[in-house]
Amino acid sequence: MFVLNGEIHDGTTAVFDPSDRGLTLGDGLFETILVVAGRPFMLDQHLDRLAAAAAELRLPVAREALAGAVARLAAAAGGGDHALRLSVTRGPGARGLRIPADARPSVLATIAPWRPSMAFTSVTLARVGIRRNETSPLSRMKTLAYLDNVLALEEAAAGGADDALVLNTAGRVAATSMANLFVLRGSDLMTPPVADGVLPGTLRALFLTRAGEAGLVAREASLGPDDLFTADAVLATNSLRLVMEVAAIDGRALPRRAEAAVAALRGLVRGAIAAACGRDPFAAGATAG
Predict the structure, then answer these.
(1) Which of 69, 71, 134, 276 could covalently link to 109 via disulfide, CB atoms 3.0 to 4.6 Å apart?
(2) EC (predicted)?
(3) Do 258 and 143 belong together in one domain?
(4) At 182, is the secondary structure helix, strand, or coil?
């Protein structure tokens, strides 16, 4: 089941113009949104980020069309817990790179099952050769041109790790292939700034604004790889796997000395989901619906 340009479809087959720049050039954006009990979590933040990126890329898509696609697909799915992907392409265009003046974007929403067991896990990381280009606007957007992340993950997996530790061109910590990174040291919760080639993640924003509720002081700070090994804990966050504790980097185990703080941050996320969606999917006896 999916929604394409306002129309809902069963199955998995869509009709797309072969000249769509999303297909030919990766010219588009996407968001991945957690849906719990049929309600999207942090939807406004996802739409704000997509709309801001679209404006910077001169991609003329109406926020109402984005919100409508999410609402229609979530309703058609009949409640439950899902991973919803919202994609926008610039639409068909002539050959060449110049942005067309008469762009007709396509909006596509797809949905897949999500289970609580996917979240709050631990992960291992490996440094990879691919670097994040912090000078590019694309480093702070979720674009359809995602092969750097795909190849970084493949390189890390080939070395036996769960995910990649991606540095920027200056050698500073940027992210993993799919998550923001945080360092816990005492009561300080630090994450690399957007200027270091970082996607402004939705959970990242939640922690920066509400970490005080977990007894922590959150701030942005540039980090080197060595900072990860001297931390009390290293966390990776994204919208579906939520808060993952990093167990090892390059095969070297991390101390993991901040169990109470990690539990408090995970509790903060659980509370935010329950407040927004009406149910904590991690609570004992919780059922999808």
Answers:
(1) 69
(2) 2.6.1.42
(3) yes
(4) strand
256 and 208 inside one domain: yes
Same domain assignment for residues 136 and 253 = yes
pLDDT of 289 reads 52
Number of domains in the chain: 2
Residues above pLDDT 70, as percent of the chain = 98
Q: How far apart are CA 78 and CA 183, in angstroms?
A: 39
Q: Report yes or no on 30 lying in a domain.
A: yes
- Bridge partners (DSSP) listed for residue 265: none
The answer to whether 193 and 199 have CB atoms below 8 angstroms apart is no
What global pTM score does this model have?
Answer: 0.95
CB 85 within 8 A of CB 242: no
Largest CA distance in the chain: 56
Which amino acid type is present at position 105? P
For residue 59, give its domain range: 2-114
Integer CA distances (angstroms), 194 to 47, 118, 173, 231, 258, in order: 18, 27, 11, 21, 25
Backbone angles phi, psi at 242, to 5 degrees: 60, -110
Q: What is the pLDDT of residues 100-146, one digit of tens each?
A: 999 999 999 999 999 999 999 999 999 999 999 999 999 999 999 99
Assess contact for 100 and 90: CB atoms under 8 A. yes
Q: Which CATH number goes with the domain that contains 126?
A: 3.20.10.10
Encoded amino acid at 68, one letter = G
Look-up of token digits 């993952």: 244
- The domain boundary residue, chosen from 98, 114, 130: 114
Q: Is residue 187 located within the same domain as residue 254?
A: yes
Extended beta strands in 94-241, E state: 106-113, 122-127, 163-167, 173-176, 180-185, 188-191, 217-220, 233-238
User: Which residues partner with 253 through β-bridges?
Assistant: 248
